[in-house]
Amino acid sequence: MPDSTRGGALPPRAIGLMLFLCLVWGLNLVAIKLGNQGIPPVLQAGLRSLIAAVLLFGWCRWRRIGFGDWQRNGTLLPGIVAGVLFAVEFIAVYVGVGLTTASRGVVFLYGAPFFVAIGAHWLIPDDRLTRAKAIGLLVAFSGLVLAFLEGLWAPGGEQALLGDLLCVIGGALWGATTVLVKASALRRARPMLVLFYQLAVSAPLLLLASPLLGEPFRISPEPLAIGALIYQAAGIAGASYALWFWLVSQYSASRLAAFSVLTPIFGVLAGAVLLGEPLGQLFGVAVALVVFGLWLVNRPAR
């Protein structure tokens, strides 16, 4: 097994790519808010998967990039499972955020690294949860909780508890998908195939779930809403997810997932700059805790 797939510290290139992804995903939170103004949430997620699947397939055909022998390489079944997890995750998250506050929702959603670390510990022999990694994850997540502490104090509405639970479920499904990719035949599959499985399977499931959840089929012609949808489809569900699954196939799943706690930090900054949302007074301390926790997780083993 190549060293890049072992549970050692991430190289600078992988760290740089993960920081870039966290920034892109943080901006996605703003795009979802803008898109929701013109497109119902689950419908928006379904359209995003559909558009991204078409774009990915077209790009692969144009570049003459094949998906490999997907019919006989053992990836079909785990690929379908990953697509179902992907769809249910987004249903849980989009519905959950609508029932609770954004601050509460993002804290519970980004418990995903804990699910990845636990799942990888039991299912991936080379990615065990060491004491240093456990402490690092705890410190980093403590910083995340601190960053959103003021939001946690705010009232979340009558259905906030249900919304919190749905966001926890969304984070667990996100973590389960990551572990599935790492622990199954998908680990050896081409990243484009792994992504295509999730997009192609989730698109019809999400589009079917939208009317079942009572959403109207409404797409606003406003340029802002359409632009937000295109950003999510091409930039997030297309390019960024392909890069993410390539990283998962090469490096430690739990160490990569630990960086995901930075995404809501970038999201809060993007919200402050682009939407004028206020920052908490403890934000600087929270960032320091997150950075220190990630350093503990990625410190080279002695």
UniProtKB/TrEMBL annotation:
Keywords: Membrane, Transmembrane, Transmembrane helix
Top-level taxonomic group: Bacteria
Membrane topology: Multi-pass membrane protein
Domain called EamA: residue spans: 14-148, 162-298
Annotated TM spans: 12-31, 43-62, 74-95, 107-124, 136-154, 160-181, 193-212, 224-244, 256-275, 281-297
Record's GO cellular component terms: membrane
Coarse class of the protein's main subcellular location: membrane
Subcellular location: Membrane
Pfam families per UniProt: EamA (PF00892)
Family as reported in the entry's similarity comment: Belongs to the EamA transporter family.
Protein name: Permease of the drug/metabolite transporter (DMT) superfamily
